[in-house]
Amino acid sequence: MNMNKFFAGCDVGSTTGKAIILDEDGNIVASAIVESQIVPELTARNALGAAIAQVEGLNAVEECAGIVGTGYGRNEVPFADENISEISCHAKGAHYVDPAIRTIIDIGGQDIKTIALDDQGGVLEFSMNDKCAAGTGSFFQVMSRVFKMSLDEFSLLSLTAQKSISVSAQCSVFAETEVISMLAKNYSPADIAAGIQASVAKRCFSMLKRVGTKERIVVSGGCAKNKGLIKALEKLLRVEVLPLETDPQLMGALGAAVFAYKNARLEAKVA
After folding, report:
1. How far apart are CA 176 and CA 20, in angstroms?
2. d(CA 81, CA 69)
């Protein structure tokens, strides 16, 4: 029987499920990213199952010493000991990776969040846009389909632009129509892509102003892998957007696992 203790965090998002497992020393020993299912509980089980399969001696969810759920489907994770908001978990995850981080832009599948952190990785202030899909992961998926490209290909397209063609529509549906019209008029695809990235950067910037912008700044969520967006943000903010050493898409799950780990240690001290 395995005597080691493991702690898990599970982030049930709208497009993907993420899981991270920490060992009893607080080190990351496994992680997984899976496609979201219609039922959030199934997404959580798939993500945790994929992570658990990587850990020798850990065979089932029930063997974890602590589990915290987060994400939009966090209330549908019945095996979690606690559910914590993704805002707190992204903050805690980023702090685990780099305690000097003070500002996070989290771009998920359906929303954008900007978060200001304190010295302990707690949330000082946050702003959230979940009323419109413009600028979110789903928006970039739509744009990549318009350009007949993969998400990875689209994220690089704007890097070869000679200029940025403004995309004025704020609604993702109208923006799609506007971009299709531009392509039909033979505007440069790279220049249009640069305009798309700039429009999302401006949306993030307006939200950052509500929480304040302090260096060090990072982007979490799957959109952090969008190189064109990072370049547009850096141009607008006039500061470097730092890369995260751990996969930025895993920040929520990592923060949840850290909460599970710290809660268990606190309970052990009380006992």
Report:
1. 35
2. 8
Q: Can you tell me which residue has the tokens 């850290």? A: 258
Edge to edge, the sheet with strand 7-12 lists: 28-35, 16-22, 7-12, 66-70, 82-83
CA 204 to chain CA centroid, nearest Å: 14
For residues 122 and 203, give the distance between their C-alpha atoms in angstroms, rounded to a whole number: 24
Least confident span in 124-128, 129-133, 147-151:
129-133
> How large is the average pLDDT for residues 138-163?
94
Domain membership of residue 21 as a residue range: 7-91+249-270
Give the CATH number, domain containing residue 70: 3.30.420.40
Residue 107 · residue 137 · CB < 8 Å: yes
Q: What integer pLDDT is reported at residue 124 of this predicted model?
A: 95
Angle between helices 227-237 and 189-211 (to 10 degrees): 50
The position carrying tokens 């305009």 is 195
Q: Is 68 exposed, middle or buried (0-12, 13-18, 19+ CB in 10 A)?
A: buried
